[in-house]
Amino acid sequence: MDSSPLLRVSHLTVRYSLSRHEQLTAIDDVSLQLQPGETLAVVGESGCGKSTLAKAICGLLPASSGDILLHGEALPSRPQQRIRFAARHMQYIFQDPLDALDPRMTIGEILAEPLRGLNPELSAAERQRRVKQALDDVAMPEASLHRYPHEFSGGQAQRISIARALVSEPAILICDEPVSALDVSIQAQIINLLGRLQRERNLAMLFISHDLRVVQHLADQMIVLYLGKLMESGPATRLFEQPQHPYTRALLAAIPCPDPAAERERIALGSTLHGDLPSPVNPPSGCVFRTRCPEAIPACAKYQPAAAKSAAAMRVNCLVRGAG
Fold first, then answer.
1. CB count in 10 Å sphere of residue 107
2. Integer Cα distance of 134 and 127 in angstroms
3. Alpha-carbon distances, residue 126 vs 112, 122, 146, 162 (angstroms)
4. What's the rounded Cα separation, in Å, for the pair 17 and 24?
5. Could you tell me if residue 286 is left (phi over 0), alpha (psi between -120 and 50 degrees) or otherwise beta?
6. CA pair distance 206, 211, nearest whole angstrom
7. Distance between CA atoms of 131 and 115, rounded to whole angstroms?
8. How far is the C-alpha of 77 from the C-alpha of 47, rounded, in Å?
9. Could you give the CA distance from residue 127 to residue 222 in angstroms, rounded to a whole number?
């Protein structure tokens, strides 16, 4: 059986030129793998580079360096070819569904548009069949095809966004905070829908979220980003049960807990972050997390930590805990 990853990202770096003499490194030397049917969660604070990473992977942003392989094949270098090639294998689900749906088009036109661009060989009858099937897969009535996005609630619009992503039958869904703009009661419905569709279609998912409760429910693997750098990665269960990096421990300690006693105990075991996220234009020397790390030592200001791999296949970029 072929065990090669569906998606392999190696040493990906994304930089923006702010001026002739100033650059911002949004993603710095990040590597990851995604297997068929697997969910890889990307977590971290706002501004850590999660969405930039996802957009670079699917070709919406150019990478400054690094390799992205889909089914073992590299993305083309030309922007339009890169986007088209990536779209055949990956589809993006955005945070705000109403902003992601064209208000001038009916739902039927929105769902048929990817097929016209990516599968022009399909007949009109086959396009219509796949559009109706995609709508049925997300539990939306066929009558929705003749309506416009503004006529739907946020949860319904997100179901339509998921249907649009599914209609071209991709192997990977990139979910960029897909439930953060929705009410809590609707969030559970969308998460359960994504889980069901993944099982039925053996979909791989790159799931971006700052809500670790959602990640804990969905993820098989997890990577933790801070200022564009990978802090820790590995099986999600192990990262939740035995986090090694101080930043991962702090993120987990911030998850709300309904039991006050358990919350106090968990916070005591975790680490509390102080201060604000540094500017990505002028990041700290050495380890970028050191200015907020409760375990930082003088060497952290001089050296960038190299990834250490534990027996549990967890990678930790930390001078203090890297060998743990």
1. 25
2. 11
3. 10, 6, 18, 19
4. 6
5. left
6. 14
7. 9
8. 27
9. 36
Gyration radius of the chain's alpha carbons:
21
Instruction: Kindly report the pTM of this predicted structure.
Output: 0.90
Whats the size of the chain, residue-wise? 324
Please, how many CA atoms are within 13 Å of residue 277, restricted to the half-sphere of its CB?
14
SS3 at position 236: helix
Element (H, E) at 53: helix 50-57
Tokens 């992601």 map to which residue? 100
Q: What is the pLDDT of residues 267-303, one digit of tens each?
A: 565 556 777 888 888 899 999 999 999 889 999 999 9
Residue type, 300: C
Structure tokens of 59? Answer: 């070709």
pLDDT band for position 56 (cuts 50, 70, 90): very high
CA distance 197 to 203: 7
Place of tokens 């419905």: 189
Q: Per DSSP, what are the bridge partners of residue 173? A: 91, 205
d(CA 97, CA 158): 5
Contact yes or no for 64/232 (Cβ under 8 A) = no
Q: Which of 4, 67, 59 lies closest to 36, judged by CA?
A: 4
Q: State how far the Cα of 225 lies from the Cα of 314, in Å rounded to an integer.
A: 14
